[in-house]
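Study this one:
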Amino acid sequence: MDKDLKYRTIETMSEGLYKEKGSRFLSFAHFVTTEEEVKSVLEDYRSKFYDARHHCYAFRVGITNILERSNDDGEPSGTAGKPILGQLHSFELTNILVVVIRYFGGTKLGVSGLINAYKTATREALLKATIVEKEVRNNFKIVCHYDEMGAVMSFLKQQKIDYKEVEMAETVSMKIALRFSQTKSVIDKLEQIFRTIQVEKI
């Protein structure tokens, strides 16, 4: 039996702020699931805070094969992106992007000062975030004939499986999401019980 997969992430966007020797570090945490989403969010912040000195960030996307990247955006190597990413690891989060925007205050902070500033700014945003545990599910499309539609829906209801996006054309189609542990048994039952059904992973 497949084990259900779960992961920790944030529910909604959150913000943080850290100040040090005149410099302001504005931090923003976002839920993301793809690198394309990351690029879109970054473009928005670069446009909105166009007058800031640095737009540093780190992200992690994926569940089993996690893609992670970090960027110092002109700060000394390893002083911005890496400490941001380190906090994502500390909070055990994925499908998340944190952007930290720095407005330079005129006084250099040094390597250790920068590392602490980006780490603390990130932590401030994450502490204000609502952290949730989500369950990974397999998504399927079910197609059946009209004469079995009622029985299929009744079966899904008995199994406490929600169906959505019901479409009625020459045949009836609907989408369901199954936990990993229940996937094989539910699909096997559907295909055994209903003669016209087609189940396709999406």
Remarks:
- The helical segments are 35-48, 81-90, 110-128, 146-158, 180-193.
- The chain has a mean pLDDT of 93.
- The chain has two domains: 6-134, 137-201.
